[in-house]
TrEMBL record:
This is NRDE family protein. It comes from Planococcus rifietoensis. Pfam families: TANGO2. It comes from the Bacteria. InterPro entries: TANGO2.
Amino acid sequence: MCLINLQFQQHPRYKLIVAANRDEFYGRPAAPAHFWKDSHGILAGRDLSQMGTWLGVHKSGRFAALTNYRDPEHMAAGAKSRGELVTQFLDGHIAPEDYLREIDDQEYAGFNLIAGDADGLYYYNNIHGEPVKVPPGTHGLSNHFLNTPWPKVERGKEKLEAYVSVNEHLELDRLFEILADAEQAPDHLLPQTGVGLDLERALSPMFIKMPDYGTRSATVLLIDHDGLVTFAERSYENGEFREDRKYEFQIS
C-alpha cells in the first residue's frame, strides 16, 4: 500500500513535483535509493525480494511509480512481481503510452502505474486497461484509481497544493513533513475495500505505523524547468526515522 502525491506542469520552478510514501511489511528486505549497478541509469530504492522497485527515475528523465490496487478479488497467486513494470519502463526507450498498452494485464495482480517524464505523464491500471494522459495539476494516487477521493489522497493533495502554491523554492524537509502525517480518517470517510474496518482504519493515514507493516520510506522528486533532478529519500525502520539520502543530476 502506498501514496503518491504529485503536481505536474503547474509550478513556476518545477515541471514535476512528487511526494510519495512506500508502505510494506517490515520484514521484506529492501535497499535504500541508489544508482543501480545493473542498469544504465536507474535511481531508485530496490525490493530485494523480487529485485524491482516501486518508484524511480532514470538519468534520461524517465519516471515511473507504482501502487497496488487494494481488492482481494484482484490478488493473483503466482503472478509476476509488479515492481518489474517500473524497472522495465525506466530502462527502456518505448514511449510511455505504447509501453503501457503492451502490458499483459493478466500476468499481474491489481496495480496502478504512472509513467513518463516531466513533459508528459500517463496513468494506467490493469482493472480498466486503458492509458490516460495525466493533465497538468495536482494529483493523488493510493490503492484505488487516480484521484479517487480517499481521505489520505485528498489530504495529501490539499497539503501539497497548499505548500507548493505559495513557495517557489521548495524545502525537502517540509515535503517530508507532509508525508509524515499520521492522522487517522474518521470511520464515515473510510473506503470499503474488503479488508475489514479495523484494517481500513489502520491504513487510512498518509503515514502508516502498524506492528509488522507500515511506511518504510518517503520519496521527494523534483524536476525543474532546466532539467535538474533532485531525488531525496527518507527511510524508516518500524515507523522510526532511519536515514536521509539525496541525489542531484542533470537529465542527459
